[in-house]
Design brief:
about 425 residues, mainly beta, Methylamine Dehydrogenase, Chain H, 4-stranded antiparallel β-sheet
Length: about 425
């Protein structure tokens, strides 16, 4: 018994060391609940290539951001000529490719800033969930962590002006996908798309519920969960047709909506910051604005931000402050409660990826491939500019005190600074 006890204690300690910590996972676009927040510490604001943990080349091109579970990184890329989609898995420790799956697709028209792999996977402890589309079909698929097929769904044709880019999310054992399609400004021969929100069983792929939505403009919003102080969780999404709205995540039944607050295309996803929900709308021609809706028994529009408002990048918020990264390179810091502006400064030539916050810093990659690091403060301080050497429209992922940065055809890991 004396011999067994130390051995058992050793095994327990090993299990504890390697037990995945939920706080360390980055399981969907912009991390837990899409909020873009990490509890990582001692992250660097400046670095050089000599500080990289590793940097690897990816096959093809894409804007899909990395997600992580344990030591495994998952993301997508695609061949820009054939539209073949690649689902990729790498070691977070050293960047080794663990497996790769290739899936044929059909070349089709894309916006010049889009790719055939702009969707970010979602991941849990058993499976990784990916989606892509061509005009013939929207594919939603689950693979296990070793790359084996678990299930695949054909959700029907895809109608859009600019291609695909919606990301799935997970909640309570379900994969939820916003399938919001184009119905106006169609090309000759195009038929209006059918829009719906769908939830499927994560293990089997069986449909749990499907809620029809209004098809006007393609909207790429990935839902988030709002948890009222008292009451059941709500699924929050944004679109041109419904504005900011809430569904019951168990049934898909609509709880409420604040309509007509998002008048143009919705590319970004909602941010839930306490009881304030941010949604943004805009167009390539301008007119962007952010709508802040105050949730509650009688949800209502609280205010709008119209100056230097983001169209594509999401809002990020922490400690009563929200940070808005305008597509044309201007960053604003506002009070979540009332929208008052603390500062507004030009930082970059342009942003398409979304910001994240960790260790008191806001990280966002500019279109030209420079990681800008700002103090998460009501006083403007630019802490660092770090060139990655390649354009990008992706969003950083943070897990295990490392930042993972995807550019068009590379993936880079930057670790915490040495104490």
């Amino acid at each position: 018994m004396r011999l067994l006890l130390p051995r058992l204690m050793f095994l327990v300690s090993v299990c504890l060391v390697f037990q995945p910590s939920e706080a360390q996972e980055w399981t969907r676009f912009r991390g837990p609940n899409g909020a873009g927040l990490s509890d990582a510490e001692s992250l660097s604001a400046t670095w050089t290539e000599a500080d990289y943990d590793w940097r690897i080349s990816l096959p093809g091109q894409g804007h899909s951001s990395p997600v992580l579970w344990g030591d495994r990184i998952f993301l997508m890329s695609a061949d820009p000529e054939t539209a073949t989609c690649y689902v990729l898995c790498y070691s977070a420790t050293d960047g080794r490719e663990l497996w790769r799956r290739d899936f044929p697709s059909e070349p089709h028209h894309l916006h010049r800033r889009n790719t055939y792999a702009s969707s970010t996977p979602a991941v849990d402890g058993q499976r990784v969930y990916v989606t892509w589309a061509d005009p013939a079909r929207v594919t939603l698929m689950a693979l296990d962590h070793d790359g084996n097929d678990k299930w695949s769904l054909d959700l029907g044709p895809w109608t859009s002006q600019h291609g695909y880019g919606t990301s799935p999310m997970l909640h309570d054992g379900m994969v939820i996908l916003n399938n919001c399609q184009q119905a106006d400004q169609l090309e000759p021969g195009q038929k209006p798309g059918k829009s719906f929100m769908i939830a499927v069983d994560a293990e089997t792929g069986e449909e749990v519920w499907r809620t029809p939505r209004t098809a006007i403009r393609v909207c790429y919003s990935t839902p988030s969960i709002y948890r009222p102080a008292s009451g059941v969780p709500e699924l929050i999404c944004t679109s041109t047709g419904e504005g900011v709205y809430s569904l019951d995540p168990k049934t898909g039944k609509e709880n409420w909506r604040v309509a007509d607050v998002l008048s143009m295309r919705v590319v970004s996803s909602p941010l839930v910051a306490g009881n304030v929900i941010f949604g943004s709308t805009g167009s390539g021609g301008g007119g962007n604005y952010v709508a802040a809706v105050r949730a509650g028994k009688e949800p209502e529009l609280a205010y709008k931000i119209k100056t230097s408002a983001p169209y594509v990048p999401l809002v990020v918020a922490k400690d009563g402050l929200a940070f808005l990264f305008y597509d044309r390179g201007i960053v604003s810091c506002i009070a979540i409660e009332n929208g008052d502006v603390f500062w507004r400064e030009r930082v970059s030539r342009g942003f398409s990826g979304s910001p994240v916050i960790a260790d008191g810093k806001v990280y966002c990659i500019g279109d030209e491939g420079v990681v800008y690091v700002l103090a998460a403060s009501n006083e403007f301080r630019l802490l660092g500019e770090n060139a990655l050497g390649e354009p990008t429209r992706s969003t950083p992922a943070i897990a295990g005190n490392r930042i993972y940065l995807r550019t068009l055809s590379h993936l880079t890991s930057v670790g915490a600074r040495a104490e």
